[in-house]
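An instance as discussed:

___
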Amino acid sequence: MSGPWGAAGPALRGPRAGWLWAAAAALALGALLGAWRWAAGRSRRRQRRPARLQRVGTVSSLFVYPVKSCRGVAVPRAQVTPMGLQSGELRDRFWLVTKEDGHMVTARQEPRLVLVSVGCENGCLALSAPGMEPLRLPVRLPRKNPVRNCRLFGLDIQGRDCGDEVARWITTFLNSEPYRLVHFEPSMVPRKSKDVIDLFRTTDEVAYPDCSPVLIISEASLDDLNTRLEKKVKIQNFRPNIFVTGCSAFEEDTWEEILIGSVEMKGTVCCARCILTTVNPDTGVLDRKEPLETLKSYRLCDPSERHIYKSSPLFGRYFAVDKTGTIQVGDPVYKMVQ
């Protein structure tokens, strides 16, 4: 009796039948998975509509600070890397003054560091300071120079020693205990911003900045502060990477995602200010009071954020880099609105 499957009926009750059913089930599952992926992709595309760009300002100045706490370099354009601004061989805070035991030294301890000017000539870092002969040292250091273990804000990081000549130069200028200069190299392990402030992402990394690759301040915020001060301060007191004009005071605090040139950045936290802001950038004298006291009178955080900022006043906003590229003075600043 042949049945509905004809003469093949009896054979399909054996191993071949199981194989065919398994193949059919696999095909059905594949179709279902494909349909699910298509629907999920369509849903994601609906959720990720192209951001609407709202112009909020213009880049008026760009600054790179090659040696932490030394004078910044104003540049017309800069590459924005995941670890901060770069102009030629100069990378933001890739050099650090340390004690002989590796602990960082900044203008908080040695305010006259702000008088050290930094440049780059023919592959050399060029240092100059009042009363000192200019000094040059290679950006790419000899491999024989030792790698030192350093300590910043309780975190370990390495740096290659820049040699005895520059160590003596810095120590002589500051009239201090012996100090060294170290350089962060690309093969070294950066610090995680999240280890300093938990609101950063695990992918946000820095060399020797306090915690963030990019700091942005608006001209209106500085103007607002100066209306409250008897003695005006400069933007150099606050050491931003990007200075923006054309927005209202402290509007930068509200920027979550921005586009400048080809660079996309994400706002993370505001910058909590310390006595470094009270160092006069022209004289290297530490005031310890202004503009910090005035900022404390009106720029403290909301009580709900005290676990982040404690009692420090806020001035400027930190940004992490989502998409690298180039920016230049005059670029529009856009807020990305979903």
The chain has one domain: 52-337. The longest strand covers residues 52-64.
